[in-house]
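Journal club side-thread
Mid-discussion, someone asked how the predicted structure for our own chain would compare to the paper's figures. Pasting it here so we can look after the session.
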Amino acid sequence: MEKKKTFYITTPLYYSSGKLHLGHCYTTVICDSVARFKRMEGRDVFFLTGTDEHGQNIARRAAEKGMQPKEYVDALYAEIKKLWELMDISYDKFIRTTDDYHEQAVKEIFTRLYEKGDIQAVELIYTNYVSPLVQEAHHMHVMPVEHLEHAPGGYHALTTYEPSPEAVFDALIPKYLAGMLYCAVIESFAAEQAARRLAMENATDNATEMITDLSLVYNRARQSAITQEITEIVSGANAQS
């Protein structure tokens, strides 16, 4: 049996900073039309679309709506999926740059780029969780792996590598990089949640204080109005007697 010729087509990964417009739909319909035509030709077609869900604009838009960035892009993703279903877009895969497997691919790409010498270093800047009240910007040097000093006294274990030191480190470095990236993500998430909790606690305390002050003002005004009304009634009664 003759193997089918393959054909790959993709839309841009649409930036998730707001709702899609006519231009997004036009681009997607064009790609869908080409994909359908190639399928009619007997090609093995893979049609990809998706969303780019990283960026400062996304974080800003989410903050304006009082939402987490992930919560914001999840809601937008649901709207896009519904729109493509309504338009009968025949994509084979919808990729999101926040997907776990996409993040894993990014780790592997950075590892390969470093191994080939295309980049000289990998460094991370993220928010480090110190305590519920303190979160600090932190800089981590990831690659190249810094030289580890021997134990105090100059003694160190004699290590035998099988099958070879190169093979062992080729297997360990990607896992090391993945672990460091995961650590940075977890620290940033914990710091963000702590900051949000503190902000909400302060907002709640301020709102409670405001309600207490307003209640006191309203009660005084109400008491003053009642006193004034009673005074007028008594004065009127005395005037008639």
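Post-session note: The longest strand covers residues 6-15.
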